[in-house]
């Protein structure tokens, strides 16, 4: 069974006799950001044509939604966003609740399989998970060695998370394949990294939950949007008409702003963890876990329409 501890001054996967005083927590936070993007081979300093095509596809799909389909064209963007994040978001969740539940279940199952197979010891499943997640874990290892200020880490998290979320949503129009691939990749990677981190349950929770509550919620929403667009694409292709895809776009329109907002909040929190001595104080760890659970309850109230009246009964 793997028993590994991540460190900023050791090669990924090597054992340490004691925890470093100031570990690079980025090594266990934010799993598989890089692998949310397909065909990730970049030349130094420039993007490939494939990457440009991804962006054009993603931005086009999201722009159509945010610029006003099924919205009052005369209303300012600020009012649209307030309405979307207010009463419209819980309604959108209700329309897509079954799909959101399925996406959440798949992510948790993937994470659970990775954790359980690693705890059992050497076995074909654990080796398959290890091989499958190696590219994302290698990326995490490389980025953890980069010297950044807390502000620099915040920018790094925001950039990678937002780009990944936009691609997951926009590229879902390609029959949802990329969105489902990202779902499995991130679930397996999260489970594998947690099971091999070497930290206690309290330490792991205090490092992951503060931003994970927001990031995973935003990620689940983004993935659900991508899969919904994929289902719409399949139906449109089968029926030889665009109406199913348009209907899918209308269904997820008010999930997108919420997803983006949650991912931004997660990036800001994750960056702030670089200036908090999390592992040096059990009191800080308990406080972070408590605050995270409180945040989760607030998110549930918001998602269920309990914070803002939606007019629905």
What labels describe this entry?
313 residues; disordered N terminus; transmembrane helix; membrane; Stage II sporulation protein M
Task: Explain what this protein looks like in three dimensions.
This protein has one domain. Helices cover 67% and strands 0% of the residues. It contains eleven helices and no strands. α8 (201-239) runs antiparallel to α9. It is globular and about 55 Å long. Mean pLDDT is 79; it is low at 1-47 and 66-74.
First-residue to last-residue Cα separation: 52 Å
Count of all domains: 1
Q: How many distinct helices? A: 11
Radius of gyration: 20 Å
List the helices and strands and how they pair.
Elements: H1 49-66, H2 77-95, H3 97-120, H4 124-132, H5 134-144, H6 150-170, H7 177-195, H8 201-239, H9 243-252, H10 256-272, H11 282-303
Helix pairs in contact: 1-6, 3-7, 3-8, 6-8, 6-10, 7-8, 8-9, 8-10, 8-11
Briefly summarize what is shown:
It holds the Pfam family SpoIIM. With 313 residues, the protein is mainly α.
């Amino acid at each position: 069974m793997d028993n590994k501890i991540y460190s900023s001054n050791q090669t990924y996967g090597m054992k340490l006799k004691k925890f470093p005083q100031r570990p690079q927590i980025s090594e266990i936070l934010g799993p598989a950001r890089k692998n949310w993007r397909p065909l990730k081979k970049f030349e130094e300093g420039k993007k490939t044509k494939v990457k440009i095509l991804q962006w054009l596809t993603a931005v086009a799909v999201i722009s159509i939604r945010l610029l006003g389909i099924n919205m009052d064209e005369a209303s300012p963007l600020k009012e649209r966003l307030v309405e979307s994040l207010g009463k419209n978001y819980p309604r959108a969740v209700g329309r897509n609740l079954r799909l959101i539940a399925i996406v959440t279940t798949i992510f948790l199952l993937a994470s659970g399989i990775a954790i359980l197979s690693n705890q059992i010891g050497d076995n074909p499943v654990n080796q398959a998970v290890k091989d499958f997640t190696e590219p994302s874990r290698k990326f995490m290892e490389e980025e953890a060695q980069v010297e950044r200020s807390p502000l620099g880490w915040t920018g790094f998290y925001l950039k990678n998370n937002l780009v990944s979320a936009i691609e997951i949503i926009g590229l879902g129009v390609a029959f949802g394949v990329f969105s489902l691939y990202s779902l499995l990749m991130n679930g397996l990677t999260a489970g594998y990294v947690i099971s091999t981190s070497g930290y206690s349950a309290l330490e792991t929770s205090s490092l992951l939950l503060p931003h994970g509550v927001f990031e995973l919620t935003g990620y689940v929403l983004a993935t659900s949007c991508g899969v919904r667009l994929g289902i719409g694409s399949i139906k449109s292709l089968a029926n030889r008409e665009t109406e199913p895809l348009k209907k899918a776009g209308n269904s997820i329109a008010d999930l997108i702003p919420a997803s983006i907002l949650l991912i931004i909040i997660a990036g800001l929190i994750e960056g702030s963890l670089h200036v908090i001595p999390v592992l040096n104080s059990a009191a800080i760890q308990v406080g972070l876990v408590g605050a995270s659970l409180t945040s989760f309850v607030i998110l549930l109230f918001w998602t269920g329409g309990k914070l803002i009246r939606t007019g629905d009964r």
